[in-house]
């Protein structure tokens, strides 16, 4: 199976602009999560989508939004970019784990490196 | 909210030495996952521990889940240069959905040949 793909891989934007990142999950995976990774804050959960519905959202401002399409592909959007939004944005899709005590395994894509100038 | 502390932040070892990273939670966990991120790469799932006192091995890697399910460790025996990277533990965010993980800050391992 092909892995999680993310486009674009690198992006340079200026403050105030907006950006849209795309993620295609592993075939058959219906859950897609987004994480922001920075040297200072580490890996932080942004939001998760399952069957086109947002199931959970992390502690990020409303400038960060996302959506999921019927084919499970997902996009995230950041509006009015700030310098602090420079980060690696990782998308992960999950396979269902039938053990009730277990958590779905996250399969990460290569990420989109966003630089805000 | 849910937090997980991971130590040490950095570890520099000579090739052939052992390495251990620890994760601690103030609350009882249902499970814990471990990921490895190579420099310039993305996190890759290593293992998930679910049972109290569980010990799992993957070649030179040994993973343990504490009896109280509040802590976990990853031990690498006889490190190699291919072990270089950052190792993260991740726990479910209670009250969150399945795809919502809380990651430790990670332990960055460097191996001197």
Can you put this structure into words, describing what you see?
The complex is a heterodimer of chains A (117) and B (113). Chain A is mostly beta strands. Helix content of chain A is 0%, strand content 54%. Chain A has strands at residues 5-7, 10-13, 19-24, 31-38, 42-50, 53-57, 64-68, 74-78, 87-95, 105-108, 112-116. In chain A, strands 2, 4, 5, 6, 9, 10 and 11 form a seven-stranded mixed sheet that branches. In chain A, strands 1-3-8-7 form a four-stranded antiparallel sheet, with no helix packed on it. The N and C termini of chain A lie far apart (37 Å). The mean pLDDT of chain A is 92. Chain B contains no helices and eleven strands. In chain B, the strands form two sheets. In chain B, strands 2, 4, 5, 9, 10 and 11 form a six-stranded mixed sheet that branches. Chain A binds chain B through residues 31-33, 35, 42-45, 48, 50, 55-56, 58, 90, 92, 94, 97, 99, 101-111, and chain B through 30-31, 33, 35, 41-45, 48, 50, 88, 90, 92-93, 96-106.
Summarize the structure.
The complex is a heterodimer of chains A (117) and B (113). Chain A has strands at residues 5-7, 10-13, 19-24, 31-38, 42-50, 53-57, 64-68, 74-78, 87-95, 105-108, 112-116. With 117 residues, chain A is mainly β.
């Amino acid at each position: 199976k092909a892995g999680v793909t993310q486009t674009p891989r690198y992006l340079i934007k200026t403050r105030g602009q907006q950006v849209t990142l795309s993620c295609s999950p592993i075939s058959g995976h219906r859950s897609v999560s987004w994480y922001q990774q920075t040297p200072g804050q580490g890996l932080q959960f942004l939001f998760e989508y399952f069957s086109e519905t947002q199931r959970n959202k992390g502690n990020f401002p409303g400038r960060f939004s996302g959506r999921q399409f019927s084919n499970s592909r997902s996009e995230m959007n950041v509006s009015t970019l700030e310098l602090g939004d420079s980060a690696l944005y990782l998308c992960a899709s999950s396979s269902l784990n039938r053990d009730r005590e277990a958590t779905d395994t996250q399969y990460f894509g290569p990420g989109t490196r966003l630089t805000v100038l | 909210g849910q937090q997980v502390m991971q130590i040490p932040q950095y570890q520099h070892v000579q090739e052939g030495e052992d390495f251990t990273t620890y994760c601690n939670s103030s609350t009882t966990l249902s499970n814990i996952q471990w990921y490895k991120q190579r420099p310039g790469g993305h996190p890759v799932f290593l293992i998930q521990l679910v049972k109290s006192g569980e010990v799992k091995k993957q070649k030179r890697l040994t993973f343990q889940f504490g009896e109280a399910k509040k802590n976990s460790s990853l031990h690498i025996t006889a490190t190699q240069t291919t072990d270089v990277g950052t190792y993260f533990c991740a726990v479910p965010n209670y009250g969150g959905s399945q795809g919502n993980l809380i990651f430790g800050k990670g332990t960055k391992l460097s191996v001197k040949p």
